[in-house]
Amino acid sequence: MTSSIALFFPMLALFLFTILVGGRLFLLRVRAVKRGNVRLSYFRNFTAGTQPDGLATGQRAFDNLMEAPPLFYVICTVLMVLHQGDHLYLALAWIYVALRVAQGLIHLSYNNVTHRAAIYIASMLVLVILWVRLGVVLLTIPG
After folding, report:
1. For the whole model, what pTM was predicted?
2. Which of 94, 39, 37, 99 is nearest to 68 (CA)?
3. CA 60 vs CA 26, 49, 64, 69, 103: distances in Å
4. 3-140 CATH fold
5. What's the pLDDT tens digit per position in 7-27?
6. How far apart are CA 103 and CA 119, in angstroms?
């Protein structure tokens, strides 16, 4: 398997983590409605009252997986299409996934903002490296 095709697997891992976080959020919402902690009508437009902190935190963790990670999915897809994947790209992709999973787990557990922010910054640095490296490679390819 080429490194370009292998880039699919970090994308799959991050996708599956996103599905797990979303599924957890859904179950928390159902439980909160059943217990009377939030009214079902709240979820119509998220303005009729408030939701418990645990739900808000779960929502933010899920939202975080919908913000920067699409840029990761795009760069991996571009690398695969252009057959530019190599072992360094693959290692960076797995590092990115590990950092995003760590950030999500911190967010959903003890939720230390300083720890979360440090991991977020590190993941963004990895994402920048992926994009800049490809840009440099493409600029240096003879025309």
Report:
1. 0.93
2. 99
3. 13, 18, 6, 14, 12
4. Four Helix Bundle (Hemerythrin (Met), subunit A) (1.20.120)
5. 999 999 999 999 999 999 999
6. 6
